[in-house]
Amino acid sequence: MKGKMIVIRIAFIWGIVADAVMTVLLSFPGLFIVSNNLNAAADPGFTFALLNSAPLMLGWTLVLIWGAIKPIERIGILLCLIPLLIYYMAVNIIGLTLGVCRLENTILLLVLQASLLVFMVLGYVFGRQIRKTETGNAV
Fold first, then answer.
1. What contacts 24+ positions apart, CB below 8 Å, involve 68-72?
2. How far is CA 22 from CA 7, 16, 40, in A?
3. At 99, is the secondary structure helix, strand, or coil?
4. Is 33 helix (H, G, I), strand (E, B) or coil?
5. Second label for 120, Cα 20 to 30 Å away, from 12, 52, 73, 87?
6. In this predicted model, what pLDDT tens digit does every residue of 59-107 receive, in sequence order?
7. How many domains does the chain have?
8. What does pTM read for this prediction?
9. Rounded to whole angstroms, how far apart are CA atoms 101 and 53?
């Protein structure tokens, strides 16, 4: 059970760090462009879109912090993040096909996202198993 809790904690903490970093990058469009090595300019529309997304990423950071405090009781948070990670991976692949993203940057990001996805899935499964063992109820 100790190993399963480590996976759950890694899923929450990695999610917190990833979302906090993205919150900062989305809050500073120029930094977002440079850090992702994008073929884009921080025009007003692009800047607005990124700034509009930053509060959502901050919200997920706070939800993950809240979940990390009582990870077994709030294990469902990880389940909610699974489709979001898949969506982000799809967005990066679309960015590659459109020529907005560069392969060398996107590959690393996709590997990190896929790894986080694995931790989220395993964390959720392990959390349900622990909950079921402790309470006799997996829900």
1. 68/9, 68/12, 68/13, 68/16, 71/5, 71/8, 71/9, 71/12, 71/123, 71/127, 72/8, 72/127, 72/130, 72/131, 72/134
2. 22, 10, 17
3. coil
4. helix
5. 52
6. 999 999 999 999 999 999 999 999 999 999 999 999 999 988 888 889 9
7. 1
8. 0.88
9. 19
Report whether 12 contacts 68 (CB < 8 A). yes
Query: Which burial class, exposed, middle or buried, applies to 73 when counting CB atoms under 10 A from its CB (0-12, 13-18, 19+)?
Result: exposed
Domain that holds residue 23: 2-135
Of 131, 121, 54, 62, nearest to 86 by C-alpha is 121
> Could you tell me where the DSSP H helices lie in the chain?
2-27, 29-36, 44-69, 76-98, 103-135
Tokens standing for 53? 């997304």
pLDDT at residue 138, rounded to an integer: 55
